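Retro notes (design track)

What went well: tokenization of the new backbones is finally stable.
What didn't: we kept losing track of which sequence belonged to which structure.
Fix going forward: every design gets posted as structure first, then sequence, in one message. First example under the new rule, 63 residues:
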């Protein structure tokens, strides 16, 4: 897929920002660093974070 065809990568933020004891947001499942650096991530990095979010939601990544 070329860069011209790739879609904008939306933020997973839903406006409920609260980190748990594992430094993961209880709403969007991003780490504190992923939240802080989202604005400077490339689209590929953002897609990688979305992949981690899906794995976290499925219980596939350690906390």
């Amino acid at each position: 897929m070329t860069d011209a065809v790739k879609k904008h990568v939306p933020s997973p933020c839903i406006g409920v920002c609260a980190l748990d004891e594992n430094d993961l947001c209880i709403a969007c499942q991003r780490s504190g660093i992923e939240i802080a650096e989202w604005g400077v991530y490339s689209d590929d990095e953002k897609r990688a974070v979305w992949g981690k979010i899906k794995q976290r939601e499925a219980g596939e990544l350690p906390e």
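Added context from the reviewer: Residues 1 and 7 are 10 Å apart (CA to CA).
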